[in-house]
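Example S7 (structure tokens).
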């Protein structure tokens, strides 16, 4: 009798950074997650704006005494969830020429994922290899502005071991519902879910 190996269920952690629960970046992420859910993914979503947490304290305890962030707050469970996920989705609006403060604070805390000698170690991350990232940006301006945002954060996430990164960038979406009428962006979100989930 032939034994059919059961396919592993894909785990996705999604971080919604916008303070607007129904904002454009959240709408894109929700479309991605809807498709991923239909494909059998297990999904955890965190709205960062509803959590209470502090930024990195520069204490270096994660490099000297322990392998995780010493702070204990609402972000602790998020950092732990990212450790065990297959796919991380981050969705942020562009505020003042950059990702918003909620997501930047989370990213600062991911410094705890790096090993003490990360600057010289060929394997600088404590995270398991093979994790994938979906980076969602929504901005009210034209596409020729803020093109530097993604490349900067791509460097950080590659350091953390995310080698397969998908960018979904929505430009000229200023009003809260603008992206919902953008079939090009919503289709891109669905296609990204199909591609990433199929590859797992």
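Recovered sequence:
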């Amino acid at each position: 009798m032939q034994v059919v190996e059961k396919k592993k269920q894909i785990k996705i952690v999604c971080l919604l950074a916008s303070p607007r629960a129904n904002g454009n970046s959240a709408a894109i992420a929700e479309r991605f997650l809807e498709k991923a859910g239909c494909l059998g993914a297990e999904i955890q979503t965190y709205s960062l704006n509803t959590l209470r947490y502090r930024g990195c304290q520069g204490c270096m305890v994660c490099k000297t005494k322990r392998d995780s962030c010493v702070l204990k707050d609402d972000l602790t469970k998020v950092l732990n969830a990212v450790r065990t996920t297959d796919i991380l989705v981050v969705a942020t609006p562009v505020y003042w020429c950059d990702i918003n403060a909620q997501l930047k604070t989370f990213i600062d805390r991911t410094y705890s994922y790096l090993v003490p000698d990360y600057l010289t170690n060929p394997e600088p991350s404590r995270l398991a290899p093979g994790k994938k990232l979906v980076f969602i940006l929504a901005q009210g301006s034209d596409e020729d502005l803020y093109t530097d945002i993604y490349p900067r954060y791509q460097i950080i996430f590659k350091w953390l071991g995310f080698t397969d990164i998908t960018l979904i960038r929505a430009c000229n979406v200023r009003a809260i519902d603008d992206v919902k009428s953008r079939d090009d962006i919503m289709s891109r979100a669905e296609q990204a879910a199909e591609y990433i989930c199929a590859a797992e």
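Notes on this example. The radius of gyration is 17 Å.
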